[in-house]
Amino acid sequence: MRVLVTGGAGFLGSHLCDALLAKGHSVVCADNLLTGRMANLEHLLDEARFEFVEQDVCRAFDVGKVEYVFHFASPASPVDYLHHGIETLQVGSVGTLNCLELARKHHARFLLASTSECYGDPKEHPQKESYWGHVNPVGPRSVYDEAKRFAEAATMAYHRTHHVDTRIVRIFNTYGPRLQINDGRVISNFMKQALRGEPLTVYGDGLQTRSFCFVSDEIEGILALSRVSEHLPVNIGNPREFTVLECAQVVLQVTGSESTVRFEPLPQDDPKQRKPDITKARTLLSWEPKIELQRGLELSLEYFRGAVASRDW
Ligand code: NAD
Ligand code: UDP
Q: How many degrees, rounded to 5, is the angle at CA 167 between CA 235 and CA 87?
């Protein structure tokens, strides 16, 4: 297949490009480099089946005939989407409509990278796909949460109205090599701070929870979903839940760092708990994450050491 990956210069998008090329597909990556980096694609630039197009997907565009559209373009870390609030709303709305239109035109299948943020600060735990969420529509995180909820609604509308063959993956916190070192996410911050011997900044009391999925597990789950005909959202994430303080302990263990912990204020509307119910993915895709947090951080250590040493941030 010839496949379009939007946001392919980012963390997840670049791993997706790698995985699709490894399966023998041709990949066109469209990215405006807002939060992504060409360094994530450097190893692909001599690959004949790979093409990079610098493109803001909020502007109408076409890349020729494609059989599949993976729409991953969007700032994703809280620091990035708070900094680029309007761009985040645009890429979730106009950008998603443009990508759906492109899929319709080429009779291509379409997969939307959505997010656990659709559940907001959830009242149901763990989160099943049937839960409608608890989102503050005017809070600081709304630029991301509502953009992604709009993107899901647009995807379902194109499926129902135009019969585009769509899928929606709700991605839970994912980490691994190529996570941007300065994107402010908890794993990138803690790894950077631990390797520099600085205090690990724990927001609030550190008892809020997240569930961390290693990137290879996440990509495997997304590709499995891309092959089945399920149009409603599917959670892909690792259901093992950690408090942020427990996550800090694992980072200190893996890095061998003697950093201390420094408590800082909790950002507004920071979800108190998050853990995917992955029954649907298990049943539908026979998929299961394999890599636990400690192992995943060990596999990421060399990348983070290099990123910290490069001072390219
Ligand atoms: P990232 O910031 O590393 O990658 C996003 C990419 O999209 C970047 O390369 C950026 O330049 C590009 N982009 C942004 N706006 C664009 C536009 N208008 N036109 C073209 N390109 C644009 O983030 P990521 O972690 O790789 O996230 C990728 C996708 O997965 C996002 O849609 C995100 O919402 C979703 N997601 C990620 C996670 C996670 O834990 N990493 C969790 C949930 C959802
Ligand atoms: N967090 C933290 N210290 C940091 C960065 C994040 O304690 O340096 C917390 C944050 O408040 C949240 C969790 O870690 O509760 C995950 O944050 P992240 O930004 O990685 O993603 P989120 O899941 O909030 O989108």
A: 85
Per-residue pLDDT of the chain (313 residues; tens, 9 = 90+): 999 999 999 999 999 999 999 999 999 999 999 999 999 999 999 999 999 999 999 999 999 999 999 999 999 999 999 999 999 999 999 999 999 999 999 999 999 999 999 999 999 999 999 999 999 999 999 999 999 999 999 999 999 999 999 999 999 999 999 999 999 999 999 999 999 999 999 999 999 999 999 999 999 999 999 999 999 999 999 999 999 999 999 999 999 999 999 999 999 999 999 999 999 999 999 999 999 999 999 999 999 999 999 866 6
Active site residues: 144
Ligand 2 proximity of 84 Cβ (cutoff 6 Å): no
B/e letters for 128-164, b = 16+ CB within 10 Å, e = fewer, are ebebebebeeeebbbbbbbbbbebbebbbebbeeeeb
Residue closest by Cα to atom 18 of ligand 1: 56
Q: In the structure, which protein residues have their CB atom closer than 6 angstroms to any atom of ligand 1?
A: 6-7, 9-13, 30-36, 55-58, 72-76, 80, 91, 95, 113, 115, 171, 173-174, 180
